[in-house]
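Quick start: read one record
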Amino acid sequence: MSLTRWSRLLSVATVAFAFAPLAAAQSDTAMPGPFYPDENQPNPAQELLGKLLFWEEQISYANSMACGTCHIHEAGGSDPRSFTTVNPGPDGLFDTEDDIHGSQGVVRMDHDGAFQGDTLFGHGFQVTGRKAPPTINAFSFNDIFWDGRAKSEYTSVDTGLVAETFFGGLESQAAGPPTSDVEMTREGHTWDDIEAKLATVKPMALATNLPPAMQDFINQYQTYPAMFAAAYGDATITGDRIIFAIGNYERTLISNQTPIDEWLATGVIAPDLQAGLTLFTGKANCSACHVLPDLSNDNFHNIGVRPDDEDVGRMAVTGDPLDKAKFKTPGLRNAVLRLPLFHNGSKNSLAEVVEFYNKGGDFPGPNLDVQLLPLNLTDTEKADLVHFLEVGITDLRVANNEPPFDRPTLRSELPPLNTVYGVASNNGAGTPPALIAHLPANKGNPNWLLGIADSTANKPAVLALAFGSDDGSPFPDPRYPIPMNVDVSTIFSLQFVSTDGLGWGTFKLGIPSASALTGLTFFGQWFVQDAAALATGGVYGSQGVEVEIL
């Protein structure tokens, strides 16, 4: 690392340690910009490419997830879905005290891309075991993730060698989710698979409302190979190049226009924020860990959110028992946009967070941080502090999706194009099967999947595809002893599969890129053989699904 880079790093450290919480603001305490790895210097084409890749749902196996799916800008760079997406936590039981409000990922798929049952989530979406940390201002940290496992030293996904020596935490983080079979893909998915797919797909085929710069970039280059050539000098797509582009896009997400930044520059803050700022830097002692100007200290602390044994946090990375249940101090900027808060998403408001600190944490233990003491704030002081946290550290550009926080609309944010309808008949055990029918059927999608679950294990199954639908009412046609959700007269394909040992079946279709397919609608229904299903003649059917091709 160059001497200049060391000087910048030391100057930032000096500011952090020298800043006196109650002193007047100084002009040299403005939030520093990002540090770039020597091995990954940016250029405008690379940053635009990274922006496309960050919001590209086709980077996932079945076109349902992008990096941005869990990191929504107007949610402070975190995941607003976490209010309702739940991981059952260490006890494996839903609706208990250790539940975790993580991020919704994918329905579990095996290496061949077939749906398979999950012990915790069945045929539903898997949910991560921690709340998604924010991508905005993530460049402020050396090691990324709540436990810091994404190291500043980035190891290449292509060669296995060190590719960035310093400041590579963003790249280390970006290397994980695209190959995670919980977050974005099937089991055993590799960066080679991602590289090959990006070489053939139409960029941002699923997204809408693209910001002008993104749309202009697509109009100019048309394909990902051409974009990689613009960014890197040749059209080769590699895992490292994907990750470098995403990392440098994230380094453009600098949130530094808040009332506290104005105070840092001028020493002046709005009268209604003064009391809260004084508490933040004084009696409440927030700035002991949320150090200005970054509002973090890039360190790890045990603050008693949950019992230590539930999630050992940093100790899983370092092996040091003294790190048990320690988690990264998050930057506080835009915290009100990032609800729910903490690593397990357990606090639904800043008022709850302030009350948590006011009483000195929820779960005191032998490894609790010594700085975590009851604050004894009055009700007025708590209200003043909450107001400051809600207003004084919020960047309205982030809240309003203004550049550099503008973004496209993801397909997964829109109403589903696949509509499940009608009724199912019961299998031999007296229960109906379930459809797995949430994935987008877009032109050029090589991995469109339609599944059935909760059916009879190891039995022949048929998926009927038709151009028309029936109403699925009980026994609508005397020729068929089961509800028919597809119009038999318009069936154009019968796909024969076998259910697996858990009663799951999957149909996989590669959809051509032909423009004539746009808007085409078809219907599907599963039929499964089960001699015990006597009421329906030894064959039962699922609900129907209506599918529109994008």
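Residues 44-255+406-411 form a domain with the Cytochrome Bc1 Complex; Chain D, domain 2 fold (CATH 1.10.760.10).
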